[in-house]
């Protein structure tokens, strides 16, 4: 952006309109399932060296010799000044980690149990859902460092950082169990008062 023959205020206005604002309007969208979190680069901006760079650029011709200044003004030896933007990387990281950790789950083995009514129930297993924090933070860092190359809208699929793993005892494993799980024995004398009750209960359990 050429800021020649402009005041500092005019130069800042031009640079903001044609350079900074289009960058700060860029959107980062974090998605995880049906959840969507949107942040603009403007939301993450901490500061920029724009004012200092404009002042440096406007005073630059005063440091040149007459010939060099002439070459500069005639466009034969243009001078470029780099504007830098400092973003709050921690803010982006925190938002991403809070989003993804809300979906993490610890594993739990499947289990078989007998209800008070005597029914046999199977409790399904719970798979571990975890995420690669290092890979996630590296990706977010790359986006902020390479902000000039970002599209107007950049979508980051958080599912790509998530992995699942089953526990040792899964639902499928327990569904194939057809062996004796447990047993109980007692002694009784046939023909006594409680004998019939014990025989009926044992037959019910076995069935």
Plain-language structure description:
By secondary structure, the protein is of the alpha+beta class. Helices cover 40% and strands 19% of the residues. The chain is built from eight helices and nine strands. It has helices at 8-24, 41-44, 50-59, 66-73, 89-101, 133-145, 171-175, 195-206, and strands at residues 27-32, 35-40, 45-48, 85-87, 111-114, 120-123, 128-131, 153-157, 162-165. The strands form four sheets. A three-stranded mixed sheet has the order 2-1-8. Helix 1 (8-24) crosses helix 3 (50-59) and helix 5 packs antiparallel against helix 6 (133-145).
Provide a short characterization of the protein structure:
This protein has 207 residues and is an alpha+beta fold. It is built from 8 helices and 9 strands.
Number of helices: 8
Q: Give the termini separation.
A: 86 Å
What proportion of the residues is helical, as a percent range? 25-40%
Helix/strand class: alpha+beta
What kind of sheet is the major sheet? 3 strands, mixed
- Give me the count of strands: 9
Determine the oligomeric state from the structure.
single chain
The parts where pLDDT drops under 50 for at least 5 residues are none
Mean pLDDT: 86
Fraction of residues in β-strands: 15-25%
């Amino acid at each position: 952006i050429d800021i020649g023959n402009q005041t500092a205020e005019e130069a800042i206005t031009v640079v903001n309109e044609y350079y900074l604002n289009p960058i700060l309007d860029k959107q980062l969208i974090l998605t995880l399932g049906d959840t969507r979190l949107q942040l603009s680069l403007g939301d993450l901006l901490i500061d920029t060296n724009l004012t200092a760079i404009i002042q440096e650029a406007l005073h630059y011709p005063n440091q040149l010799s007459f010939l060099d200044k002439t070459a500069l003004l005639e466009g034969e030896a243009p001078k470029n000044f780099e504007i830098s933007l400092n973003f709050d990387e921690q803010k982006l990281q925190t938002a991403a980690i809070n989003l993804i950790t809300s979906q993490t789950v610890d594993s739990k083995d499947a289990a078989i149990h007998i209800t008070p009514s005597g029914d046999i129930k199977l409790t399904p297993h719970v798979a571990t859902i975890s995420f690669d924090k290092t890979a996630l933070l590296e990706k977010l860092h790359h986006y902020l460092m390479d902000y000039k190359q970002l599209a107007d809208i950049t979508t980051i699929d958080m599912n790509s950082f998530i992995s699942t793993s089953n526990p040792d005892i899964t639902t499928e494993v327990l569904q194939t169990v057809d062996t004796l799980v447990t047993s109980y024995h007692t002694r009784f004398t046939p023909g006594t008062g409680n004998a019939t009750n014990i025989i009926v209960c044992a037959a019910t359990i076995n069935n």
